[in-house]
Predict the 3D structure of the following.
Amino acid sequence: MFIVSLPNIITVARILAVPLLVWLIAEERFHEAFWLFVAAGVSDAMDGFIARTFRARTKLGGYLDPIADKAMLVAVFLVLGYEALVPLWLVVLIVLRDIIIVGGVSVLTLMKERLAMQPLWISKVNTFAQIALAALVLAVYGPDLAPESWIEPLVWLVAVTTGWSLLGYFLRGLLILRTREEERETGPT
């Protein structure tokens, strides 16, 4: 029974680490923030591995894991933007994308649409790029593991993949609405 709940415990610990990570970055304790961010990434991989290997997937875990990931990334980018370590326009783009996606899903859910919550491939690339950028910024200003010149190209990669992902989800939502309208006009197939 313990192994069944272990992935959820790890995920909750990751959620609880978000305020500490924000505080470390705000206090310019980038070295510690970098290692906590790395530990959060390792714990994300670990809880997924445990859940798959021991067939310990739960409905709660299915909700908590993406919430933990989003909470960590959004919080980190908000504080990195506040500290002027990443451009503010990028932070706005990242947060706006998430708000628009959640709003779109909410509207479709209210319209009684069945949604398969499958992320687009570009969304997976975007998430990886966001994680890489956050880790890189913390690595540059913390343990000095990379040159600062690597940040700007990654900022642009995150911007492009964020915009592309937003466009992809917008088009997916339009397709769902169009299909719904066609089914109403012709009847279900």
